[in-house]
Structure formats: structure tokens, C-alpha cells
Design goal:
Low-confidence stretches of chain A: 496-507
Number of domains of chain A: 3
Order of helices and strands of chain A: HHEHHHHHHHHEHHHHHHHHHH
Largest sheet of chain A: 2 strands, antiparallel
Bound molecules: FE2/S2 (inorganic) cluster
Strand content of chain B: 15-25%
Oligomer: heterodimer
CATH superfamily of the largest domain in chain A: Cytochrome Bc1 Complex, Chain C
CATH superfamily of the largest domain in chain B: Rieske [2Fe-2S] iron-sulphur domain
Strand order of the largest sheet of chain A: 1-2
Strand order of the largest sheet of chain B: 1-10-9-4-3-2-11
Mean pLDDT of chain A: 91
Number of domains of chain B: 2
Structural class of chain B: alpha+beta
CATH class of the largest domain in chain A: Mainly Alpha
Shape of chain A: elongated
CATH class of the largest domain in chain B: Mainly Beta
Number of helices of chain A: 20
Distance between the termini of chain B: 105 Å
Helix content of chain A: 55-70%
Strand content of chain A: under 5%
Mean pLDDT of chain B: 80
Low-confidence stretches of chain B: 187-222
Amino acid sequence: MAGLKISKWLEHRLGFIQPLKQAAEHPTPSNNASWWYVFGSAATVLLMLQVVTGILLALVYSPSANEAWTSLNFLNHNVALGWYLRALHGWGSDFMIAIVLLHLVQVFLFGSFKFPRELTWMVGVVLLLLTLGMAFTGQVMRFDQDAYWGLGIGASIASRVPFVGADLVHLMLGGPIIGGATLSRFFTLHVFVIPGLLLAGVAVHVLMVLKHGVSDWPMPGRLVRRSTYEREYHELTLRTGLPFVPDAAWKDAVFAAAIIFAVMACAFFLGPFGPSGQPDPTIIQTAPHPDFAFLWIYAVLAFLPPSLETPVLLVVPVLAITGMLLLPLLAGEGERHWARRPVAVLSVSVIAVTLGIFTRLGTYTPWSPVMDAWSGDAVPVKYMHNRSPLEREGAMVLQDKQCRDCHSLNGEGGMRGPKLDAVASQMTEDQIVRQVLQGGGNMPAYGNALNPAETKALVSFLMTLRGHDLQPAMNASRELLRESRMEQTAGSADSAAAAPEKAGQQR
Amino acid sequence: MSELLKYPGMSKVDTLSPEEKAAAHTRRVFLFKLAVGLNAMVGAVLAVPLVGYLLGPAAKKRSDIGAWVNLGSLSDFPVGQTRLADFRSPMAAFNDGETGKTSCWVRRISEKSFQVFAINCAHLGCPVRWFSESRLFLCPCHGGAYYEDGSRASGPPERGLFEYKFKIAGDSLLIHAGNLPTLSTEASCREKPLVQIEAAEPAEAANAGMPDATMRSTTWQG
Ligand code: FES
């Protein structure tokens, strides 16, 4: 009784308890009370988790270039449960990106972005970009080696913008070099600017969902038309409507709890991310790589041909974002069901597979030389059996000249260049000599780094590498030449007899 | 409605709807518009210094960025070798901590001729490493490779390594360092992009108060 009185008193002053209750209980078509419709609310719950853990981390974190890295190690090792908070925030971020992407794919495949929810989709695209912005700025907060060189990569990309490149670099870094000013501005973005935009954007997004209702389950052949859709949706709601809370929302609640539980489990068992080495640019023995969400970009950057690099880096993101924003305006009507939208299904599959492949490549960076393979990975013993002294000398040259950093033997060594286990069955001696001395096909020329004796030894060792004793590669034209020479010598014996005949032919 | 006003503030238009009232109160509407205009003006005047503050880092004159830094004694750099030298950036501020330090590769070609390369790859800025046996700089990020003179050998970079201007003062090697080297903020040699070996200048500026530089020799250096 007392509780009711208090709530009445409050409502008389606040005036928004009833409207909120009505919004929560708004009727929604029964066909969308489905497990497929739970991602949006889970993303919102994850955002709340990030806000709370972020505030708690800010109690200890010191956003200064002098102290940031140390304060994270302090959190990891000296503050009770500091490691767990860092882990929750880090894993929460990865989960949030994943759930936001799932939400996007679901809305896209269900055609829910069509009339009248076009603007909801556009705001959603902005929210995705803001989420990625949080992930990138968050990686900078870690202020370790990866963060330092990641900023360098960001600055290098900005520097490719025509005309204003230098100014952009200075704006991004807050000065001519990466340092305290850089960390401060990324801290401002990560803690004030982007979260503010994110929360405001989520509010607008949710208000629009309430206004237009959660989209109904798509049916093949039921087309969206601007003239009729809203009336149809309204009738559907009248006929089959269930209160969103509790009839549909219980699934949202269960899923959100499961996701938060998964974040907790990952955080507890797998721990926080980094920090890796200290942000000292004079420590150059490092192989910087970005966080999981950006690994695919890292991989794409390794494969772009130099001439395409700048255009692709600057133009493709603009096109992709514009395309996503304009999508509901260009395809705002028509079929919603995925079975009737092959292009949509195909695009999602292609993009998902591409991102997956590039991310996978980004985890083991086959394009990077293995910097210590030349001193760390020995030549396999089986390749040294029954070899002449010259050939063994060649194996030494192969190690010494750091060929192994890019070429593997028996699966050990770099993967930048082709493996050499069967090189002699693929290339002739002449071809190997040419390739080593002049380079080409993405291999540097070693003409200046090898003297003739070293070259001779190296090539003779390489010529012994024929895989499972395959035939050595042959130069067919040379073979022909030899044969024709032999014919010539054989022919010269009876040349006297042949000469008049040839002369006759020429005439 | 009587002709007499019953209470202060009462007006002849009290019976009208709010919109009609607003239409009738032309003086107040005018004053409100004036006030909005006034606020716009104040806002604009307020915004100028705020935007100026925000864009400050980009507004610095290019020629102001950078200074000569002492890399150490010439004898630290044997002829024919390429070595790593550390220095504190002349642009480092009080709060830059370790990030104020940086390194460069010094190649001594002969007594008086040097090449000083930025460690930052010309592709996307990762730190390149020198391999003395194969006479190559290799980049750990995307596998860019450069020859010993800094020219591009293979991989994603579209040009050679960035070079610092250098000069010899007495027994010391000095370089001109400033910006983080990137494609549009090359290692402080904007007026001469892609500068190759600059003729050694005779010792000139006394280098008192130069930031100190340290020299390291590591195992992979010949
Ligand atoms: S940063 Fe060096 S190859 Fe990409």
C-alpha cells in the first residue's frame, strides 16, 4: 500500500512513469517475439556494462604518456580485482562489436531497414561506426607498443589525404609527434565525446523503434509499400499483438544475461588484454599488430599493390559508409524475406567470408618476414645428408644471408616468399641465379649482398632441393638448342652433300 | 470582456489562442528574433577562439617544426656500416615520457658522407630493422623491404625510406628532426622530398645545448 502511495506521489511530480510503462507494454506483432530479435537489446546491455566498467577503470587509470602504461600494469598486478575489471572492459568491447555486427546482419537479412524504418537503420550505421571508434580509441588507451605503432599507422593513413595530409596528422596527434598530447586527445574521444554521441544515438534509435514498432517477421511475397505498410502493420498488431514486456522481452532478457555471463567467463578465464611492451619507440624489436576487430584491415594493407594503396584507403571507406547509409533510400520498398533477396544474401556471405579470411590471415601474418628465422631455424638435417662441401657451404650462405626470414624449409621460416623444399624441381639453375641476383616478383635483388663464390655455393645447395627426389626442372629451350647443335655437328659431316640442295631451296 | 483590466498583466488578447497571441504581440516576437540573432552573434564570436584552440596543432608553421639534434660522435659510426642511434625528439613536450624518444638508422658511406633514415616504414610507419648480412631493411608489419641506400626493394611501400637532413659539426653528427615521418610530414625535409645524400657541410653552428643522444650497438648489426 505504502509503495503504491509513494509511486503515485512520484508520478504526480515526475510524470513519466506511466508513459514509460505504456512504452514497455506496447503491443508488438506476435510473430516477432523471436530469438532472432534479441541482438539490439543485448548490445544496449553491453554498452551499459562498458560504461560502468569504464568509469571504474578511470578511478585508477592515468591518461598521461608518462604513466598510462605503468598504471595499467598497476591495475593488473597491484589493484585488487583490477585485472578483472580490465578483462571485463576488454572482452565487453569485443562482444559488443560482435553483437552489433550480428544485429546489423539480422536487420539487413530480414529487410527491416525498409520503410518506415530507414532513419533507424541510418542511425544504426552511425552507432556501428561509433562502436568501432570506441574500439580503436580504446586500443590507444592501452598505450603500449601496439598502441604506439597503431597510432603511427593511423597517422600514416591520414598523411595520404591530398593537400591537408600534414594538417590532419598534426590534428590527430595533437602535435608533430606521437606523445602526451596524442594520448590526451584519444582519452577525450574515448571517455567524453564518443560515449556521449553513442548514448544520444542509442536514445534516438530506441525512440524510433518505439515509434514505428519492432518490424514484423518477413514473409516471402509480402511486399513493403509506402502506401500500405503502416496500415498493414497496425492491423497485424491489433490482430496478433502481444505486450512487448513481458511476452517478447523475456527472450531479450535471457539472451542479454547469457551474453554478460559469457563476457564474465572470458574475462575470468582468459584475462585482460595486455598491455604489451612499453611505448618506447627506440625498442624496434617489435611486430605491432592491432586488436582483433581491426586485424582484417591490417591484412588488407599487406596485400594492396602500392599504386592502389592511397586510393583504396581513402575512397573505399567513404563509398562503403555512404552505401550503407543510402541503402534504405535505394531499397526502401519491396521484398523483405531473404529467400527473395539473393543479392542481399550473396553480399552478406561474400563480405563475411572475406572478413573471416583476412582476419585469419591477420592472426599469423604470412606476409611478414620472420625476423629471427635466419639464426633460429636450422637447415633440416635431411637436407645436409650426402651433400658436397660446396653445397654445405651454400646452406651456410642461405642461413647467413637471412633467406630463411622469408623462405621456409620443412615448414620452418618465413612465409613471405615461396618455400624452398622443392625449388630445384620448379626452377632451373639459370633461373635461380637470375632470381637471386636480380630479384623480382616481390623479392629484393641480392646482387650487392652476395659475392660470386657465395652465389655459386648458394645455388648449388638450392639445386639439391628437389622435394621427394623429383626431376630437376629443365630448360626446354636449352634442350632444343643442344639437340639442334648436335644435329648441326652431325649434319656438318655430309654438309657438302646438303649444300647444293639448301641453295636450291633458297632460290 | 470589460474595458477595464481586472489585474496587472491582463491584456485585451487574453481570449486568443497562444498562436494568435504571438501574432498579435508583434513587438515581443520582434524582440525574441532580435535576441536569437544576438545569441547567434555571441556564439560566433565565442566559437572563433574555441575552434582556433582545437585546430591549434595543425596551425603551427611548418618551418617552426624541428631542430638540429646531436646523434653523437662521428667515431660511433664506422665507415661502411649502418647503425641504430637513439635521440630525444626536439619536439618532445614535458608530458611525452618515453614516447618523446625515437631512433634512426645511420649509414656511414665514407668519411664525410652519411645517410640517416627514419625507422618509420614509408608504407604505414612501422619500425624497420636493418639486416647487415643481406644488406636490407625489413619491416615487420607488412613485409616491406628496402636496400641499404634506403631505396624500395619490395613489398607494399611505394617509395624509399624517409631521410633526415644531416650535418657534421666538429666531431658530431647532427640531424634535423621534427615531425613523425609520414608521407606528408617527411622527416623534416619538406622542401626537398626524397632527398638523397646531402653533401657534408663544413662544421658550422656550435651545438651547445643540443639534446643528448645515445648510441646502441645490437647483435644484428654488422
Ligand atoms: S608498415 Fe612497413 S610494410 Fe607496411
